[in-house]
Amino acid sequence: MSLRYSYTLLAPLYDGVVAPFTAAARQRNLALLPQTPDADVLLVGVGSGLDIPLLPRGPRYTGLDLTPAMLERARRKAAAASLPIRLDVGDARRLPYPDTTFDSVVLHLILAVTPQPERVLAEAARVLWPGGQLLVLDKFLRPGQAAPVRRLISPLLGLLATRTDVVFERVLAQTPGLEVVSDQPALAGGWFRRIVLRKAGR
């Protein structure tokens, strides 16, 4: 089953399951975004638009997602919030944007969803200006963490919705030029983490 198909099926249920659990952590991350009208912000894996009502006013926003059914829900949230945002269908592993296009990139619950998180992070870094920030919220194992149940169920869950065995440090090691600004536990006893990265330069 492809992720596009599974998330098309999950779209009607997604907000009710995910929103209450993640809203506070999302809001804390999004508060770090620039609030100037000349800033360009990309939300990779924008999904049903749970971030949209929480976005600060000011920047120009672009959201991208693989699943049209999720993007339709994001459009409705943008209209309800009177927030101008460009919403594109696309693959986070092959972003359809030129190099150094965005001042900030948001990666909320996408790195553990994709089968190739290292490519998603590399693409996010590619489209980011030097000195720009990457805001990450997701579930990650720590290096060397056993977590046998999470590792056991990950192959099946990864086909349906999300992986449970991603080690962020391994993903980051494959994308040179990104530095960790902060790394804080967010949810589920630290399984979910709020991570701020900065692209070297400028």
Q: Given the C-alpha coordinates, what overall shape results?
A: globular
Number of strands: 7
Structural class by secondary-structure content:
alpha/beta
Which residues sit in consecutive blocks of at least 5 with pLDDT less than 50? none
CATH architecture label name: 3-Layer(aba) Sandwich
Strand content bin:
25-35%
Determine and state the CATH class.
Alpha Beta
Give me the strand/helix succession.
HEEHEEHEHHEE
> Rg, please?
16 Å
**Gap between N and C termini, in Å?**
43 Å
Features:
alpha/beta, 202 residues, 5 helices, 7 strands, seven-stranded mixed sheet, Rossmann fold, globular
Question: In short, what is this structure?
Answer:
With 202 residues, the protein is an alpha/beta fold. It contains five helices and seven strands.
